[in-house]
Amino acid sequence: MDLSEVEQRIRMLIFDADEAAEVSEHFRIVQKLGEGTYGKVYKAISRTTNEVFALKRIPIQQSEYGVPAATIREVSLLKECDHPNVIRLYEVLSKEHARYLVFEFMDMDLRTYLTRNGAFKDLTGLKNAAWQCIRGIHHCHSIRILHRDLKPHNVLVDVTGSRFKLADFGLARAFSVQMRALTQEVVSLWYRAPEILMGERKYASPTDIWSLGCIVAEMATGQVLFPGDSQIDTLFRIFRMLGTPSEEVWPGVSTLREFTLEFPKWSRAGLVDVRAKAPALGPDGLDLVDQCLKYNVAERASARHLLQHRFFENFVIAT
């Protein structure tokens, strides 16, 4: 069996006959990288330049409304995001059966990286990774874009170049100074801010900052910070660490739909477990995480302030 026959068989395993013909004109499919709610992602090599790309395939539902709204949002918002720490969308191919989003290729996601390599033990590496993630979300917020699904799976890593980029903007939204009601079905449960878990529908950039704090802690420890198996379990894990919220520490909490006076009363323990598991963070790194995990969104640090945090003092990161 020659190489062309092998390629054809691979394509037929991935797509049906019509779809294989659609994509084979432009790309040689190497492997499937992953699958999400709205499509599958493949490693693909351009037939004209031999460059490697990530190819996201979104099927078109002929009987409904065509391209999913999430895909339209993802494309439109990514076109606004031209930044080294946000994944680059090169082009969109429109075919009969599907739309293909052509992204720059990265080695793996942060979840895979941590699974293979463990936590960041090197302070320089930890600062570099945290800085790039914060810088990416700072850019998004500066042009009024909420990511709304920050998690290690959506942070992509170029291992050789030590580059980190935010990806998967399918749940992202543009926002304005005047907050409006938004859905609560956002952000993977472990990285979801407590205000959303408690029923708040008017939220903005601080929700992304909470997720960032969880991610930085996970980078340093190699373990998920709040691995709840349900919404209430996640809330209780947060309460055990940060204390059961009250009006004193979180003005307005008692008005939220999911609040109840029957919540168990836990005192604030702080980041004791994170400190024990992540010596590389040090006092400054712990404070940075703590600034992300404030109940009161008015007290939660912005991405701009996080970039100015003393954790990054005297640390030069290549751009």
Automatic annotation (TrEMBL):
GO CC, alphabetical: cyclin-dependent protein kinase holoenzyme complex; cytoplasm; nucleus
Superkingdom of the source species: Eukaryota
Keywords: ATP-binding, Kinase, Nucleotide-binding, Serine/threonine-protein kinase, Transferase
GO molecular function, one term: ATP binding
Cross-referenced Gene3D superfamilies: Phosphorylase Kinase, domain 1, Transferase(Phosphotransferase) domain 1
E.C. number: 2.7.11.22
GO BP terms: G1/S transition of mitotic cell cycle; regulation of G2/M transition of mitotic cell cycle; regulation of gene expression; signal transduction
UniProt binding sites for ATP: K56
Subunit (UniProt): May form a complex composed of at least the catalytic subunit CRK2 and a cyclin.
Record PANTHER family: CELL DIVISION PROTEIN KINASE (PTHR24056), CYCLIN-DEPENDENT KINASE 2 (PTHR24056:SF254)
Family: Belongs to the protein kinase superfamily. CMGC Ser/Thr protein kinase family. CDC2/CDKX subfamily.
Stated name of the protein: Cyclin-dependent kinase 2 homolog
Phylogenetic placement of the source organism: Eukaryota, Sar, Alveolata, Dinophyceae, Suessiales
